[in-house]
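Honest question from a wet-lab person: if I give you the sequences of every part of a complex, can you actually get the arrangement of the whole thing, not just the pieces? Trying it with mine:
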Amino acid sequence: MKTVSMERDTVHVFAPATVANMVCGFDVLGFALYDPGDEVIIRRVEEPGVRLVNITGDDGRLPRQVSKNTVSASVVSFLQHIGRTNIGIDMELHKRMPIGSGLGSSAASTVAGLYAINTLLGSPLSRRELLPFAMQGEELACGHGHADNVAPALLGGITLIRGYDPVDVVALPVPPALHASVVFPHVDVPTRDARQMIRTKVALKDAVTQWGNIAGLVAGLFTDDYALIGRSMQDVLIEPTRAILIPEFYEMRRLAMEAGALSFGISGSGPSVFAFARSAEQATYVTSIIQTHLTEQGIGSNGYVSGINMEGPRELRD
Amino acid sequence: MKTVSMERDTVHVFAPATVANMVCGFDVLGFALYDPGDEVIIRRVEEPGVRLVNITGDDGRLPRQVSKNTVSASVVSFLQHIGRTNIGIDMELHKRMPIGSGLGSSAASTVAGLYAINTLLGSPLSRRELLPFAMQGEELACGHGHADNVAPALLGGITLIRGYDPVDVVALPVPPALHASVVFPHVDVPTRDARQMIRTKVALKDAVTQWGNIAGLVAGLFTDDYALIGRSMQDVLIEPTRAILIPEFYEMRRLAMEAGALSFGISGSGPSVFAFARSAEQATYVTSIIQTHLTEQGIGSNGYVSGINMEGPRELRD
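Yes, you can. This is the full assembly:
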């Protein structure tokens, strides 16, 4: 039974950053963070049409045109789908997270916008029904309509994209003590370039290693087996190529693992890195030693510590 | 705590046939059947040394030399490991399943032998500790020491070989209604040839599809989600090549899926095929329509219907 909600005049939404790939699940796994994330405010106005009236926190890097900005463009697609193109909407996007960080920046913005417009109109669609619109937004932002960031940003938790024909999202369980340490080193690795470096052919034996590992990771998540989770999170295919673009990658990994992290790897296409830890304290420690090391090398960074965000987007009451 | 058991004079063991790969888990997944399987009888005798005194059911195809036959060779390795080479052993191997069928024939024999000698000597090793000896047997029989047949034959249930360095076997849960339909068509596909046909390089996008599917299958097994199990069991990498060697493969699949099977695919390197069904009745029906179709095409076959064997090898009390 669908809950019928009232339409509203203003909605303010936060949607989370996400870590895609999770080391052994290239293009199919991802999870949501509590921090950082983006905010979108949508106001209903008299004049029909969708307008982007304010964007902050992007240093002018994002498109201002409604049809080119992923947030407004996906809201327009949503309104066309539900037959409400006559409505008047003013949108604000407040970036509270770095762009080009490998933390699903465009996905966080797009999901915040879609969740906001859906809430404003009384939730005509379910969260899962918003996914295709969010994937369109990714297509516009990154040149490919993958769901490995938008699915966890929208649904929360750890998500598996089993397949795309049709899109099949499986929610995976989250062991209670699991925490993430995330560090964004201030070096520039555009997603498009990072994807282009990856070989289109891989050795079958490496692929077998990879799918043994992803199967082990899923089993570890279902059984709260932290050791199995840790030893499954290895990447013999993508990481060796992408790590080249990330200064100090192997030293950061050594430090994280020495500090007791379960696993360490690249977040999405980088340059952000993440580690899984068994407690908030351990994740805090891992973040701090990685950031200290980067500072010593003259590299600035943002550091985060977060549990796995089971909620996805949430409304902020002003 | 290790249970200390008495040494015995005679042990008679059955070990099961197994289905490796499970469509989307090439070289890493497998499960055990109740039927068919092989039997080994081990008797303690005065004269030191290991002897193969009787082999039946193999049409003379298996080596009679102790060092060349996988069953006796792995028993010798085991005795060397535990320092009991002075013992006298007469072994009988009774093949109760077809050789070269893709149903783990060598694994069933080897596991039966190892389980029998271990039981005879009061179980000095655990089942998991027998695995390396069984893998040595596979090396001798097939030219590669994979564990995807010996692990389920030895441990029962559905097993994942997460990795080989060191070997890491994860037991996966088995949804209660799951049953297997298995058909061995009487055509010859030697394992070595079937492996050699497989390309050593694969497209990354196909590998991504494959690991999305294996992750979905593992999640489906943990949640008793039969529909997810079914739609995850697809193989875009290996099956297209191996299916060429199996007459009527696509017609058998069409018939099985029409009859309500959850999934259909090649068992190991073939030519046996298997389907998952949601009940013994459905599995029985699927086996019968596949065998009927093969008969109409002039192809003989063996048909089996089995739940997932959770036990692995078992002692037969004569």
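Two things worth pointing out. Chain A touches chain B through 39 residues (CB under 8 Å). Residues 179-307 of chain A form a domain with the Alpha-Beta Plaits fold (CATH 3.30.70.890).
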